[in-house]
Amino acid sequence: GFCTNLLLSQTPEHILAQTNKKTEILCGLEKEHTGVYWYRWSQERQIFEFLIFSNALGKTTYGANISQDKFSIHGTSSHNSYSLHISHLRASDNGIYYCSVSQSSQLFLGSGTQLSVVDVLPLPSKTTQAPVSKKPVRCTTKRKAASRKGPCSPLIWIPLAAAVLLLLLSLISIAHRLHRMRRRLWLRIHRQ
């Protein structure tokens, strides 16, 4: 399960960056931890993606299909502050980035940083936009998450929805093939 927590302070709240440039997101921990995880929520693709984990010794583990040239984590010697460095920015990097720590079978998330990558940065304006409101996230333990009734987390329902969609597409393809085979057979019978 996941929950937002005041033990993690994440800055900045919003980043507007230019294509091919690099950026940095800071994550401060109230107390020392064995390491920090980074995740990205992509609104466009509707996925919550594991990016990278770095332990206290500086060893990093990357998520599936995550470029090691793009993401890196730098930590302080006190292990209470980590920064995520993202280079070679592309539009596909857009999303909300969360730093996270694991404690007592729970995954605690930072407040999130909205990254928007654009080709050209806009000229500074005098007006400021209201921050994007984030929905509160329910906090449950990993054990309870499996048996919990009600709405599933995106990590569960998104793969299920994708599997159902693939199944439907394959059924349509099979039905189309059967229809063509039946029609060919019908034509052969009537030609004779």
UniProtKB/TrEMBL annotation:
Q: What is its main location?
A: membrane
Annotated membrane topology: Single-pass type I membrane protein
Glycoprotein among the record's keywords? yes
Domain called Ig-like: residue spans: 12-116
**Residue ranges of coiled coil:** none
**Transmembrane regions:** 155-175
Which keywords are on file for this protein? Adaptive immunity, Disulfide bond, Glycoprotein, Immunity, Immunoglobulin domain, Membrane, Signal, Transmembrane, Transmembrane helix
Provide a GO biological process annotation: regulation of immune response
Name the Gene Ontology molecular function terms of this record: coreceptor activity; MHC class I protein binding
Q: Does the keyword Transmembrane apply?
A: yes
**Entry GO terms, CC:** cell surface; membrane
User: What are the subcellular locations of this protein?
Assistant: Membrane
Designated name of the protein: CD8B protein
The record lists the lineage as: Eukaryota, Metazoa, Chordata, Craniata, Vertebrata
Gene symbol here is: Cd8b
